[in-house]
C-alpha cells in the first residue's frame, strides 16, 4: 500500500484526504494541532494523525517524508520550498496547490535530474483553471486557430442564499491570505497594452462580470489576480487584445476593502500599546484622528466619503467603530482576521460556491469564435464545502496519478500538459466538478 503524508489540516484538507483513503492509500495527516488531523481522518484504519509543527521542529521533516512515498504540502505557501527540498533529499515526489515561486522554480533542474515530480498549482485557482483553459487552447490550436483574447475569473463566494452580510463574503479558506491578496500588485494586457497596477490601486481596477448562477443572471465584480503575463508562456498563447486572470466577488467587497486597506487595517506590522484599546480606538489611531467620539464622520472625512457611504456601513457592521476590546494579536491584519472569522464564517448548513469562468476570442482562417467555459460548484450542506472539494480533489487526483505511475514527468510542473489534464478533468467530472462550454461562431466579414 502506497503511503502519503499530508502536511496541514486546514479548511481544504478533508476532501483531499478522504479521496486518497477511498482509493486505497495509507494517509498520514501531519498537523501542529493533532486533534484537527484526527477529526479529518475520522478513525479510518489506514489513516494516521501526527503532531508536527514545521516552524518549530523542521529537523523532523525529512524523516517523516522518508517514511512515505509522496508528500502533499497544504501548509502556508512559504513552507512549500522547504518540503520540496526534503523531498529531493529523500527521493520522494511532492504535490501542492500553490503558485510556483522563485524558490520552488530554482529546484527544477535538480528534480528533473533525480526523476522527482514536484507538481504545483493543482487546486482550483491555480489548478482547475489551468487545465480547463488548456483544454480549450489546445483545441483552438489543433484546428489552426489563434487565441486573441483570454480572460479567466475565479471566486470562492457564499451561495446566493447565504450572501447575507455587507461585505458579500464568507471565509472558506485562509482568511489572512484572502485579506493580504488585496495588497498584491497586478499586471495584465487589456485593449492591446500591458497594464501595471500597484497593490494600493488594485480594487480600482474592477469590472462587472456577468454570470448565470442557478438560472439567475448575476453581475459580479472582477479584479486582477497578480501577474497574468507569465501565463502567455505557460499556456503557449500571446493574445494581442486581452490577457487577464482575475478574482470574482459579490458587489461590496472591492469598494469596502479598498477603504479598509486605506485606513491601515491590512498592516502586518505590530502596533504597540494596544492593551485596553477598543476597535474604535485602533481605527482612530490608524486613521490619524483624535478620539472616538463621532468616529464614523471623522473616518468619512479622512477617506473622502459621504457619512452615509455603504463602505462605512460595512465597517460599522463589522464593529470597527465599536467599543469592544481588541483580541490578542498586535498586527492590524491579524486583529481584522479574527474579527472577520467571528462575523463572516459559514453557519451550520450554509453553502459556499465556487465560480470559475474563462472567456476566449479565437480567430480561425474561416471564422472567429467567442468561447465561454463556466464552472459553478456548490458546497454540500453538512458535508464538504465547494472550496474544500475544488482545491483538495485536483491535488488528490494528482497524487493518485503519480503513485499509480500514470504521470511521471519530473521537474517543477504545473498541470497544463494534455497527458495530465485530460484524465484529471475526466476524474473530476466523475466527482461532480464539471464545466459547461458555450461556443458562438463569428462570421468572417
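^ C-alpha cells above, recovered residues below v
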Amino acid at each position: 500500500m502506497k503511503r502519503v503524508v499530508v502536511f496541514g489540516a486546514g479548511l481544504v484538507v478533508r476532501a483531499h484526504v478522504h479521496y486518497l483513503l477511498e482509493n486505497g492509500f495509507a494517509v498520514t495527516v501531519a498537523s501542529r494541532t493533532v486533534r484537527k488531523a484526527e477529526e479529518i481522518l475520522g478513525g479510518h484504519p489506514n489513516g494516521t494523525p501526527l503532531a508536527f509543527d514545521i516552524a518549530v521542529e523542521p529537523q523532523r521533516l525529512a524523516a517523516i517524508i522518508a517514511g512515505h512515498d509522496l508528500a502533499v504540502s497544504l501548509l502556508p505557501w512559504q513552507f512549500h520550498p522547504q518540503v520540496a527540498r526534503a523531498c529531493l533529499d529523500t527521493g520522494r515526489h511532492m504535490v501542492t496547490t500553490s503558485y510556483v515561486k522563485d524558490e520552488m522554480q530554482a529546484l527544477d533542474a535538480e528534480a528533473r535530474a533525480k526523476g522527482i515530480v514536484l507538481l504545483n498549482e493543482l487546486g482550483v485557482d491555480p489548478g482547475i483553471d489551468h487545465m480547463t483553459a488548456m483544454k480549450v487552447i489546445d483545441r483552438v490550436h489543433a484546428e489552426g486557430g489563434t487565441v486573441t483574447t483570454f480572460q479567466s475569473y475565479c471566486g470562492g463566494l457564499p451561495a446566493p442564499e447565504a450572501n447575507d452580510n455587507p461585505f458579500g463574503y464568507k471565509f472558506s479558506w485562509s482568511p489572512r491570505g484572502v485579506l493580504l491578496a488585496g495588497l498584491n500588485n497586478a499586471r495584465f494586457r487589456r485593449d492591446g497594452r500591458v497594464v501595471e497596477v500597484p497593490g494600493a490601486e488594485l480594487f480600482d481596477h474592477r469590472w462587472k462580470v456577468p454570470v448565470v448562477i442557478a438560472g439567475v443572471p448575476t453581475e459580479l465584480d472582477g479584479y486582477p489576480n497578480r501577474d497574468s503575463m507569465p501565463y502567455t508562456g505557460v499556456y503557449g498563447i500571446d493574445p494581442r487584445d486581452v490577457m487577464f486572470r482575475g478574482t470574482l466577488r459579490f458587489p461590496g467587497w472591492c469598494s469596502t476593502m479598498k477603504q479598509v486597506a486605506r485606513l491601515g487595517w491590512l498592516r502586518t506590522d505590530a502596533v504597540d500599546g494596544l492593551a485596553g484599546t477598543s476597535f474604535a480606538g485602533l481605527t482612530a489611531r490608524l486613521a490619524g484622528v483624535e478620539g472616538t467620539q463621532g468616529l464614523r464622520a471623522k473616518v468619512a472625512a479622512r477617506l473622502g466619503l459621504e457619512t452615509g457611504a455603504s463602505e462605512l456601513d460595512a465597517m460599522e457592521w463589522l464593529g470597527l467603530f465599536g467599543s469592544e476590546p481588541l483580541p490578542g494579536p498586535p498586527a492590524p491584519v491579524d486583529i481584522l482576521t479574527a474579527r472577520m472569522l467571528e462575523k463572516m464564517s459559514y453557519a451550520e448548513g450554509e453553502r459556499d460556491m465556487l465560480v470559475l469562468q474563462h472567456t476566449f476570442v479565437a480567430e480561425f482562417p474561416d471564422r472567429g469564435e467567442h468561447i465561454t467555459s463556466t464552472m459553478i460548484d456548490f458546497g454540500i450542506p453538512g458535508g464538504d464545502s465547494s472550496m474544500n472539494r475544488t482545491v483538495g480533489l485536483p491535488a488528490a487526483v494528482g497524487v493518485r496519478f503519480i503513485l499509480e505511475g500514470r504521470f511521471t514527468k519530473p521537474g517543477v510542473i504545473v498541470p497544463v500538459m494534455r497527458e495530465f489534464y485530460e484524465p484529471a478533468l475526466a476524474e473530476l467530472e466523475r466527482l461532480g466538478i464539471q464545466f459547461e462550454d458555450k461556443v458562438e461562431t463569428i462570421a468572417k466579414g
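The first strand starts at residue 3 and ends at 7.
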